[in-house]
Design a protein that fits this description.
The protein is mainly α. It contains 14 helices and no strands. Residues 1-17 have a biased composition (Basic residues). Residues 1-23, 214-253 are annotated as: Disordered. One of its GO terms (molecular function) is oxidoreductase activity.
């Protein structure tokens, strides 16, 4: 994370009308969210003090308050506990996956088209993610939003508002501190409508659209890309060799 200071600079992309925060401030909030929602590897864990300092320097706002609550927890945890918690809540739970098109399209052909359209949106803005993640991975979407500005840059976030709400609810249900990061993000977006709330409740109860019967939820065409952590299959039962006793020896004579 040697480039942390560079990545936290205010984005200089095209801007539309500012939101509740000044444009540079809004871009910084989105960049912090993008970093903090990434897998907490050793490099990110080593920069926790710098991230906490950046959050502490933010002007007061709802988003800044949620970020401060998260970084207080984040800075206090052993690095290995951060990694295991992240895998548990984001890789092993469908309702809190960070791949946004899953919530809108499920495991259907339309999801592939949505991923392609999102990648084309990035290219049209002169930006490409080079970290190997799918274009709908939330940290990637947040980085684009910080660079491209509130109108075009945040359009993918607004489009997937209902999925973001579901992730927030799922993280809240398991009492994960990452719920604060989703709460911070949602505070930057337009308020949910009654139709949004109804759709989120339905999504939580029924799941996203389904098309591919029998699809492995962790295969390359599921909501997580190849290489995502997959629990190992249970080992087959161990067969014990037969016990040889005196009677068996007699029978073989």
């Amino acid at each position: 994370m040697s480039t942390l200071r560079t990545r936290l600079r205010p984005a200089s992309g095209r801007r539309a009308r500012p939101g509740p925060e000044e444009p540079a401030q809004r871009g910084l909030l989105l960049r912090l969210l993008s970093l903090l929602l990434q897998y907490p590897d050793a490099e990110l864990a080593d920069e926790r003090a710098a991230l906490s300092a950046a959050v502490d320097a933010l002007p007061p706002s709802a988003a800044a308050g949620h970020l401060a609550a998260f970084t207080t927890w984040f800075a206090a945890q052993p690095a290995e506990d951060l990694e295991s918690h992240y895998v548990e809540v984001f890789d092993l739970r469908r309702k809190s996956s960070l791949y946004l098109t899953y919530y809108l399209h499920g495991d259907t052909r339309r999801r592939g088209m949505a991923l392609l359209a999102l990648a084309q949106t990035y290219r049209a803005a002169g930006w490409s993610a080079d970290n190997g993640e799918l274009p709908d991975h939330l940290p990637v979407v947040l980085e684009f939003a910080a660079l491209a500005g509130p109108r075009a840059g945040e359009a993918p976030l607004r489009r997937h508002r209902r999925g973001l709400d579901l992730i927030h609810h799922a993280l809240t249900d398991v009492r994960s501190p990452y719920a604060d990061l989703l709460a911070a993000l949602l505070s930057l977006l337009p308020r949910a409508t009654d139709a949004d709330l109804e759709a989120v409740a339905k999504l939580a109860a029924e799941g996203p659209p389904a098309e591919d019967v029998g699809l492995d939820p962790y295969s390359g065409t599921g909501f997580a890309p190849p290489g995502t952590f997959v629990p190992p299959a249970p080992a087959p039962p161990t067969l014990m060799p037969p016990v040889t006793g005196p009677m068996d020896s007699e029978a073989r004579r």
